[in-house]
């Protein structure tokens, strides 16, 4: 039984590790944080107000633009963010 379980656990662990590695690479390339949708599950549950963007979809974009601008300034100074 153990001889059948170990290869399956190794494959599962490898798949999860690859998933997280690719997520990390995707984050480093795009520099966009993971974010929820304003209105998805929260609206279904009766919560009409989005706590992250305050029902302003442009706020998320402005936060990302500000983070990119700060990263550019830090890169010009020779510092990492």
Automatic annotation (TrEMBL):
Q: Where are the transmembrane segments?
A: 6-29
Keywords, alphabetical: Membrane, Transmembrane, Transmembrane helix
Domain of life according to the entry? Bacteria
* PANTHER family referenced in this protein's UniProt entry, alphabetically: (NA+)-NQR MATURATION NQRM
Q: What is this protein called?
A: (Na+)-NQR maturation NqrM
Q: What is the species listed in this Swiss-Prot or TrEMBL entry?
A: Psychrobacter arcticus (strain DSM 17307 / VKM B-2377 / 273-4)
């Amino acid at each position: 039984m153990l001889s059948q379980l170990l290869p399956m656990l190794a494959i599962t662990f490898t798949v999860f590790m690859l998933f997280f590695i690719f997520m990390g690479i995707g984050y480093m390339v795009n520099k966009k944080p993971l974010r929820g949708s304003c209105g998805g599950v929260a609206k279904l549950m009766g919560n009409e107000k989005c706590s992250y963007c305050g029902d302003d979809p442009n706020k998320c974009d402005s936060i990302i633009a500000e983070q990119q601008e700060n990263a550019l300034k830090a890169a010009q100074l020779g510092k990492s963010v």
